Amino acid sequence: MTSLDIIKSTYEGKTSEENGKKLQHYLAADASWTEAQGFPYAGTYTGFAEIEKNVFHRLATEWVGYKFTVEDYVASGDKVVAYGTYSGTHKVSQKSFTARVAHLWQLKDDKIIRFEQFVDSIPVVAATS
Q1: Which of 12, 40, 79, 84 could form a Cys-Cys staple with 70, CB 3.0–4.6 A?
Q2: What torsion do the CA atoms of 78, 101, 86, 83 make, to the nearest 10 degrees?
Q3: What is the largest CA-CA distance in the chain?
């Protein structure tokens, strides 16, 4: 599989659970995952357990219908960018949002070693208040 094929497989499964399993399969044990400054889950996490606890668990428990709709991909060697739109409704505030986003992935030997999020955090943060 190419780097692009690997990254696409983490977004384009039939269910979120399938995408999560693909991500976990391709994620290096010491992968670095950075959520953008200003985003509610901002920070850098290492390895699947930290990522799951600090990002995915919170997304699943704090939002209804939270999703990333991929518009397209750009790939060059071991780097892939997926860009599109986040959307969802915050469970406590009941406010919905949409925000533009790009994900930068870096792979080595068919494993994801780095993820970095670039996002317009303002609508996301506004939905939480």
Answers
A1: 84
A2: -40
A3: 43
